[in-house]
Amino acid sequence: MSSSLSLANLPVADDGPLPLLVSFSVQARAEPGIMPRVVELFAKRGLVPQKWHSTAFGSALIIDVQIGGLGRDLADYIARSMRQIVGVETVLTSETRPLG
């Protein structure tokens, strides 16, 4: 059984007609529990990031996540939630809206 996912089915806030493509860049301590806590913020909302890249070097961990279909309110909430994770030092976000 196959299913298809379209942008029309993704959660969108009331801040515009088109969903955002949001990039999160997380700098944290290199500890085993950081990545699962970050991915949990997406998973418990039924969201799967389009891209995930993480690099650990020394005591630092960098996680770059890109996900489409978010409204600005949800993206801001997820970023605030990431900042509350113990061991996370910095969370930067950037967003683009597809031309439509």
SSE blueprint:
Layout (H helix, E strand, L loop, with lengths): L19 E10 L4 H10 L7 E7 L2 E11 L1 H12 L4 E9 L4
Antiparallel strand pairs: 1-3, 1-4, 2-3
Concise overview:
The protein is an alpha+beta fold. It has helices at residues 34-43, 72-83; strands at 20-29, 51-57, 60-70, 88-96.
Could you explain the architecture of this structure?
- There is one protein chain.
- This protein has about 100 residues and is an alpha+beta fold.
- It has one domain (about 15-95): Alpha-Beta Plaits.
- Helices cover about 20% and strands about 35% of the residues.
- The protein has two helices and four strands.
- It has helices at about 35-45, 70-85; strands at about 20-30, 50-55, 60-70, 90-95.
- Strands 2-3-1-4 form a four-stranded antiparallel sheet, covered by helices on one side.
- A hairpin with a 2-residue loop joins strand 2 (about 50-55) and strand 3.
- The radius of gyration is 14 Å and the shape is elongated.
